Amino acid sequence: MKWIVAVCMVGFLVAVTSAGRHQPVFEHHEEWQLWKSQHGKSYRSGLQELERHLVWVSNKEYIDRHNANADVFGFSLAMNHFGDLSDNEFVDKYLSYTKSDKKKRNVKMFEAPEGVSYPESLDWRTKGAVTSVKNQGDCGASYAFSAIGSLEGALSLAQGKLTYLSEQNVIDCSVAYGNHGCQGGNMYNTYLYILSNDGIDTSDGYPFKGKQTSCTYDRSCRGTSISGSIAITSGSESDLQAAVASAGPVAVAVDGSSRAFRFYDYGLYNLPGCSSYQLSHALLITGYGSFNGNQYWLVKNSWGTNWGMSGYIMMTRNNYNQCGIATDAAYPTL
């Protein structure tokens, strides 16, 4: 005759049979199974799944507590494909932006035109200057997606058509210029590579693989070249607005280490404790505006459409350079 003893251990239940076999009983079982199915999650063993489940439960509790006060915070969170990663695991895997010495990268400084007024709101997506949301997968190369996104915008505004360019080309071929493949980099090293290489391939000619491979740049697949890059005065959101309004989408980097950023879903992201100097993730500013009376930057991420507002986030604007949105910003020139 079998007997069952329910043992509560660190937030989960374990059923023990008379045969001595331990079988985990997961919390929120249906929701856990649905989440695994939605995001194609599978694990090598029952023990590994249990370990990942515990992390998922912790993240779910954080999300639920935040959303209970979403009206106070001004933005809501949602579970996504990062749900089974701890804070340290997430940082190590995805937050790999590295700062660079602009002076050593032959970068010119942005000079805002005098006497020019800019629109109160702007969305470059409506003007055909922004490609669809991409997904960097498990490759820590947000810098490549950010830099390429700005170049795609500049090229579209110059040619009147949208061309998808290759992040994989950057990941594979810009190591000699200071980037580290799927282990981090920045937009300045990326633009230096494209300038020195006299070109970057299209994404069709050099498709994304999700990992670093050997450099196979093919000039016959070249999508464009650049003449240089321009950096925004560090910390100046007014200059950043002028650059976005006059030049197009701009590559930026922010402090993305908070769980609130990782699980952002909707609303104006305003996190006073966010660092303006410890930058860890690269993004693309595609516009700006106001939401419920508060100013925001419209920012494109590279974590797929299941993250945020279909891949986008509204980040607070003109709020003391929160999260370092204007600390390290640049765009290329054709």
The major β-sheet equals: 7 strands, mixed
Q: Could you say which overall geometry the principal axes of the C-alpha atoms support?
A: globular
DSSP strand tally = 15
* Beta-strand content: 15-25%
List the uncertain runs. 1-19
**Named CATH architecture of the largest domain:** Alpha-Beta Complex
Helix fraction bin: 25-40%
**What is the structural class?**
alpha+beta
Give the count of helical stretches.
9
Which fold name fills CATH's third level, the topology of the largest domain? Cathepsin B, Chain A
Strand-and-helix sequence, N→C?
A: EEEHHHEHEEHHHEEEHEHEEEEE
Number of domains: 2
Q: What would CATH call the homologous superfamily of the largest domain?
A: Cysteine proteinases
Rg value: 22 Å
Give the overall average pLDDT: 92
Descriptive account of the structure:
Residues 1-19 have low confidence and may be disordered. This protein has two domains: 5-74, no CATH class; 87-333, Cathepsin B, Chain A (Alpha-Beta Complex), CATH 3.90.70. Helix 5 (142-159) packs across helix 7. It contains nine helices and 15 strands. Strand 1 and strand 2 (12-16) form a beta hairpin. 28% of the residues lie in helices and 20% in strands. It has helices spanning 29-38, 46-67, 70-73, 87-94, 142-159, 167-173, 187-197, 237-247, 259-262; strands spanning 5-9, 12-16, 22-25, 75-77, 108-109, 122-123, 200-201, 222-224, 228-231, 250-254, 264-269, 281-291, 294-300, 312-316, 330-333. The strands form four sheets. Strands 4, 6, 10, 11, 12, 13 and 14 form a seven-stranded mixed beta sheet that branches. Strands 1-2-3 form a three-stranded antiparallel beta sheet, covered by helices on one side. It has a three-stranded mixed beta sheet with strand order 5-9-15. It starts with a strand and ends with a strand. It is globular. The protein is of the alpha+beta class and 334 residues long.
